[in-house]
Amino acid sequence: MSERISKWEKFKMQNPILQFFKFLFLNVKIMTIVGKGHGGTRGNDYVKEN
Questions:
Q1: For 24-33, how does the pLDDT look when each residue is reduced to its tens digit (9 = 90+)?
Q2: Its domain of life (predicted)?
Q3: How far is CA 22 from the centre of its chain?
């Protein structure tokens, strides 16, 4: 049998306010990584040429 979800875990998952703040936090994290110049998988030489 699978493990039961505690009342606190269920509350955290179903609370729309908490979900909204988690969503915002993750968006900010992603934007800071992208904004700092994370260029994906291509090397710097390719970026300088184009």
A1: 999 999 888 8
A2: Bacteria
A3: 8
